[in-house]
Amino acid sequence: QAKVTGRNRHHFFDSDLDEQVRTHHNRRTEVRNAVRANELVLFYQPKLDMRKGRIIGMEALLRWNHPLRGIIGPMDFLPIVEHSDVIVDIGEWVLREALRRLQSWRAADPQWVISVNIAARHFQRPDFVERLKAILAEYPEVPPHMLELEILESSALSDISHVRAIMQDCQALGISFALDDFGTGYSSMSYLKRLPADVLKIDQSFVRNMLVDRDDLHLVSAVIGLARSFGLKVIAEGVETTEHGAMLMRLGCDLVQGYGIARPMPADEVLSWVASFDTAHVWQAAASLPPI
Ligand code: C2E
Ligand code: MG
Ligand code: MG
Ligand code: MG
Fold first, then answer.
1. What is the C-alpha to C-alpha distance for residues 239 and 259, in angstroms, rounded to an integer?
2. Angle at alpha carbon of residue 145, lines to 109 and 266, rounded to 5°
3. Which residues have a beta carbon within 5 Å of ligand 2, which is an ion?
4. Lower Cβ count inside 10 Å, N or C end of the chain?
5. Which long-range contacts (CB under 8 A, 24 or more apart) does 219-226 make?
6. How far is the CA of 61 from the centre of ligand 1 (A)?
């Protein structure tokens, strides 16, 4: 009796799992097809140097323009494919598309840097650098120093010396690296010591709460100090208000990105947005903020 129940339960579980596997497989196929059907698009979010009042570049952020469901954000479909080579196809598509756009924006500002998020699996492929070189060669008007790659701490955990070697090979070409969501991982310090990063990107969760939570303020301040002592640039993400901007400027972080400057926007809105952007309000807020 007990055996039968056990077997039934087992069978039940099995078919449930089958179902899950099938669903996952279908969803992965769906995402793979999205690349082929040309349904992926990049939005761009500006990065601002508050002190200079200048836009220094754009981060490319992936969206899926689904024929039925509309615009879908990356967190709703990248996790489905991050452990398969579909993430590599997507990553290479993103690189090409971002470089193509940057090429068309060069006349507006030849100094802009385009930032591209790279998934761990893509980044750690043995042929990553070779293929990246080939992609860059397709866009001869865009020199490699106009490309920045954003990687997450978790990208490096598996094999830090391999990751370091890839970073150094890319840097030899002129490409720079930002450590995204910095401060959220468990090993930020050793990571920093062993990886040749160019930029630390303070995670938005700290920025969001720094005006109400003393600990987050100290964390933001510490990352800025860390960047300074390692000779790295530092940028804050998730800057939503002028008060955020003002506080960051006081703490010595001039580079900011967030809804307070601009939300990610379609490529064809970028140039007109930049032309109409005015940084004056940030300066006023900075001047009126009481001392820390
Ligand atoms: P991320 O690289 O840390 O990007 C920042 C995310 O925060 C973006 O979400 C952006 O739209 C959002 N954001 C920017 N400013 C603000 C703000 O002021 N407030 C709030 N609440 N949010 C803000 P998004 O576009 O949904 O991207 C989420 C994550 O997906 C990215 O985090 C990145 O890790 C990943 N991702 C995006 N595009 C790509 C891509 O092309 N390839 C890969 N591998 N990953 C990507
Ligand atoms: Mg990023
Ligand atoms: Mg981030
Ligand atoms: Mg993030």
1. 6
2. 50
3. 117, 150, 180
4. N
5. 219/183, 220/248, 220/251, 220/253, 221/251, 223/182, 223/183, 224/251, 224/252, 224/253, 226/192, 226/200
6. 6
Q: For residues 13 and 243, what is the distance between their CA atoms, to the nearest angstrom?
A: 53
Are 63 and 41 spatial neighbours (Cβ–Cβ below 8 Å)? Answer: yes
Tokens of 125: 């492929």
pTM of the model: 0.92
**Residue 208 is encoded by which pair of tokens?**
């969001």
Beta carbons within 8 Å of 95's beta carbon, 6+ residues apart: 116, 132, 135
Q: Which of 209, 259, 257, 263 is nearest to 237 (CA)?
A: 257
Total H helices, total E strands in the chain: 13, 10
Instruction: For the chain, 292 residues long, give each residue's pLDDT as a single digit of tens.
Output: 444 444 555 555 567 777 787 788 899 999 999 999 999 999 999 999 998 889 999 999 999 999 999 999 999 999 999 999 999 999 999 999 999 999 999 888 899 999 999 999 999 999 999 999 999 999 999 999 999 999 987 766 678 889 999 999 999 999 999 999 998 876 677 778 889 999 999 999 999 999 999 999 999 999 999 999 999 999 999 999 989 999 999 999 999 999 999 999 999 999 999 999 987 656 555 656 555 5
For ligand 1, mutation pick of 58, 61, 64, 135 (most atoms within 8 Å of CB): 61
**One-letter amino acid identity for 155?**
S
- The Cα–Cα gap between 288 and 274 comes to 26
